[in-house]
Amino acid sequence: MLSFLISDAMAEAPAAAGGEAGWTGLLFPFVLLAIFYFFLIRPQIKRQKEHKALVDSIQKGDEVQIEGGVLGRITEMGDEYARLEIADGVVIKIRRGAVSAVLPKGSLKEI
Q1: Residue ranges per structural domain of the chain
Q2: Rounded to 10 degrees, what is the CA torsion of 6, 9, 12, 13?
Q3: Do residues 91 and 85 touch, judged by C-beta distance below 8 A?
Q4: Taking the CB of the first residue and of the last residue of the chain, which one, N or C, has fewer CB atoms within 10 A?
Q5: How far apart are CA 89 and CA 94, in angstroms?
Q6: How far apart are CA 26 and CA 5, in angstroms?
Q7: What integer pLDDT is reported at residue 12 of this predicted model?
């Protein structure tokens, strides 16, 4: 019926090869998924957990660096946003998730 799409020889080839061809054909995708999991997905999940812990640990008075490279001191905290003093009298509002690093105390005086 479908012989105009697939020739009879091609349709019977896997059956003639035996049952082992199916296992080796499935082995490669599983190995590929395992490689992706251990080298790409798992490290990314670990970085996300570390960043969430960093963002949750931020307190008023901490000196931080945000994703854009701006350094400043946290002056006010909210649930989603914080106020960052980047210079004397210059305060900006940032997302808490934008914080990329917490600096040691006194780092801003050295710069």
Answers
A1: 8-53, 59-110
A2: -110
A3: yes
A4: N
A5: 16
A6: 25
A7: 53
Q: What is the pTM of this model?
A: 0.69
Q: Which tens digit of pLDDT belongs to each residue from 61-72?
A: 999 999 999 999
Q: Does domain 59-110 have CATH number 3.30.70.860?
A: no
Lowest mean pLDDT among 15-24, 83-92, 93-102: 15-24
- 3-state SS assignment for residue 103: strand
Residue 90: both structure tokens together: 């210059």
Give CA 9 to chain center in angstroms: 48
CA nearest neighbour of 58 among 33, 40, 85, 76? 76
Q: Where are the alpha helices (DSSP H) in 40-106?
A: 42-57
SS3 27: helix
DSSP string, 57-77: H--TT-EEEETTS-EEEEEEE
Residue recorded with tokens 């009879």: 8
